[in-house]
Amino acid sequence: MASWLLLVFFLAAPLPQESVGLNKFTQLIQPNMIIPSGMMQMMYGSELERRKEQIISKIRDPTCSKHIRALLDGVRKREYWALNMADASVKIPDGVLSLTTWYVGNYEQCLRVQNVKTDSGSFSGQHCMARLCTAKGECVENLAATVEKGLPLIEQILTGHVVKDLLAKLKVIVNTTSVHVGFCMPSTCSSSDAENLLNAAISQVTKEVHTNVRPGDCHTAKGPDFEVLDYITLGLFTAILGVIICSTLYDVTHQETSSRSELYIVFSAYTNLKKLMNTSETSGKDLRCLHGIRFFSIAYVVLGHTYIFHGMIPLHNNTEVHEFLKSLNSTWVLTGVFSVDTFFLLSGLLLCYGFFNAMTEKKSINYKAFYIHRFMRLTPTLLAVLLIHASLVNKLNTGPIWNQIFLEDCYDSWWKVLFYIKNYYYTNPCMLHTWYVSADTQLYCLSPLLLITLWNNPRQGKKLLALGLFLGWFIPFTYAYVWEIPCPITPLVFLGNKAKQSAHLYTSTETRFAPWLMGIWLGYILHRIKTGQLTVKMNKMEEN
After folding, report:
1. Residue 127 DSSP SS3
2. What is the C-alpha to C-alpha distance for residues 316 and 326, in angstroms, rounded to an integer?
3. Which pLDDT tens digit goes with each residue over 51-109?
4. Which of 172, 177, 196, 362 is most open to solvent, judged by the fewest CB atoms within 10 Å of its CB?
5. How deeply is 453 buried, as exposed, middle or buried, from its count of CB atoms within 10 A (0-12, 13-18, 19+)?
6. CA angle 484, 486, 492 (to 5 degrees)
7. Which has the higher per-residue pLDDT, 354 or 486?
């Protein structure tokens, strides 16, 4: 406790005029310390003690105001519950020079404060996360501009290549995230009450910074309430589970009976798992060599997303992350964005190969069945996952950064997923991973135009393929050049001031169809080899 007071005193005390450099340095770092120093001074310092009523008057809810006074009085009286709430709030931040931007406090300690009795009613601990924003309310994209104003102050205080390197890193990191701080409040206070209180305290020190607290940023031990859609989802999947259990029991108990009905075992876990785990030889139509490519590609995708999600959680070594991104060691991670191209290639290959096989056998294609088959394969599963994301996903867990990092907002944007246009709305936080399904489905729907041309007139079809490949390379190059997006696209680009442009470059169909067309061409070649229209000589490997 004494160490806090000494640090608060140092940051808040007026400095002599001759200490110009130190005064500027204090002015620079105070926005990062603003909440802890402001709160601690309000609790202990005589300067803000006189302004306490002025600050608390900014809270609109009278119950919240009374409980804030009770909290401050409890801290002064050294009451255990009040000290727990104060101790659970973030204090003088550590790792400022390491460019740490998340200061969470102690989430569990705050929520352990329960049923505090006061004259104005009882309350419990509520943990809230606040974002530091500029005076104009810009919390992410232009926060770097605010920091830029303070960079010359550091240069005046400190010199050398170390500082210049730190400034370069600061510009990169702050461009991609805002500063978050956690604090403990009475549960009777709303997010707007918490925001008003913090802004009133901050205004005593600076007018350049304020906070933003959204409704989902505050958590209590009670957790989120279930809604009607949540119960509908639980009921539906409970019914599906019941059907699976009944079908499996019927399957197991009627293995050798003549009255066994295939209809009743459609949902049998026993039969379906046997089919999924079957590794025996299938018909010659199956390109078994592709299974290995699928495995390595999905492993690469998982690896890349592991790094991405680690970059989204609070880190205390942002400077080291910056060094890693510039090093040669990061190349194999940053180039993971191209692993998705493998799936587009496989999609085009299998589509063309299957289409030409069907045309060879039947001489025609039922286009109605062509589209219905795709719809029935994807949509029921997609709808089930969408229902879970629209209801239960946000309630699966809780924590100080749960809603900051894992936020699904599908109530108003479900149709973007269900109608397979999600790849053009990538910045909307609803099932972001379905952008690939949308792009691939759009290409599937357009594929008959190319495949029929390639079947009926191979010469014209090849010209169309060549033109498509050229456009598939030219369009993303033009986007990247005009928007000045670096290559390869890194996770930081998606969080910076070019997030929308980067997302469009990464997920739009017109920038992704080149590998799909290469798959179409490869499928065409494989079909010609299979039917004997094209001969490829390969040397056989003989055992010694």
Report:
1. strand
2. 18
3. 677 777 778 888 998 898 888 888 888 888 888 888 888 776 667 666 677 888 889 99
4. 362
5. middle
6. 110
7. 354
